[in-house]
Amino acid sequence: MGNQQNFRYSTGVVAYPIFFLMLIWVVFWLQVRFFPVIKTWGIVPQTLTGLRGIVFSPFIHSDMEHIYHNSIPLVVLTMALFYFYRPIAWKVLLYGILLSGLITWVIGRPANHIGASGLIYVLVSFIFFKGIFAKHYRLIALSLMIIFLYGSMIWYVFPIKDGMSWEGHLGGLITGFLFALIFKKTIAKPERYVWQEPTYNEDDDPFLKHFDENGNFIENLEPEVENEFETEVELEEKRIPPKYNYIYKENREDQ
User: Fold this and answer.
1) In the list 6, 34, 51, 134, which could disulfide-bond 139, CB 3.0-4.6 Å?
2) CA 79 – CA 73 distance, rounded (Å)
3) Which tens digits make up the pLDDT trace of 199-224?
4) 44: which DSSP letter?
């Protein structure tokens, strides 16, 4: 996959994250204003009704502080995802929600797990490990930036705070790492120069021809001398006598 297909700005880089965030806020407004029951539609581990939370939980938040703390990192990370990994961005988002939610449903405590933090951990984990695996300077720089901004989030995959779904965070971290491995072939490749190719030949390089054996630069190269020897075919053609228009000649004699 070429770099031009990955690192290219489009309207979706901003539009999709903003739309996703607006959808979360609309659900929160409906929950507070009209349907408080929405808050109970989270992931309830190891229960059949709790399976619906795998899809709904990223859109449900407990209060204003909860949704506020998730909004900014969600927009920043999804923008980075759509800019640097546009061909697989939707797969990472949709499958990330499902897989991280399923892991939470399997390993979670018997409680109502809600919030987009699990998805945020998917994005943090995926972008970090993907950049390391890619060995591309832009993606590595992005990974380092992610660590600088959200590196402290690693502590919240452990049960260090009451009332926080560390199982959802751990599920997101595992999911992001798995996706970085699964989509390993769809990474942007570092640019390769001609001299890095295995078929490169120094004798055919037009730039290196400007240097002599001692490394001195030659500004004007002597033009290549064309072969002055005539081929046997050309010599044979010269030996053939010119053709005459005999009809024209006979007509002249008749006159």
Assistant:
1) 134
2) 10
3) 656 566 665 566 666 656 666 666 55
4) -
* 82 Rama sector, left if φ>0, alpha if ψ -120 to 50, beta otherwise: alpha
Q: In whole angstroms, give the CA distance from residue 41 to residue 111.
A: 11
- Asked whether 83 and 13 are in contact (CB, 8 A), the reply is yes
Which two structure tokens, joined as six digits, stand for 229?
A: 């020897």
The residue type of 5 is Q
Confidence of residue 1 (pLDDT cuts 50, 70, 90): very low
Distances (CA, A) of 79 to 9, 21, 76, 83, 198: 10, 11, 5, 6, 37
Question: What string of DSSP letters covers 2-25?
Answer: -HHHHS---HHHHHHHHHHHHHHH
Evaluate whether 100 touches 175 at the Cβ level (below 8 Å): yes
Q: Report the distance separating Cα 136 and Cα 82, nearest Å.
A: 17
Q: What is the pLDDT of residue 90?
A: 94
Contact 179, 95 (CB under 8 A): yes
The structure tokens listed for 135 are 């060995």
pTM of the model: 0.72
Q: Interior CA angle at 190 toward 189 and 195, to 5°?
A: 120
Both tokens assigned to 124: 């943090």
Amino acid at 148: F
What sections of 59-210 are H helices per DSSP?
Answer: 64-84, 89-107, 117-134, 137-150, 166-182
Q: Read off the pLDDT band of 151 (50, 70, 90).
A: confident
| Helix 11-33 / helix 64-84 crossing angle, nearest 10 deg | 160
pLDDT at 20 over 90: yes
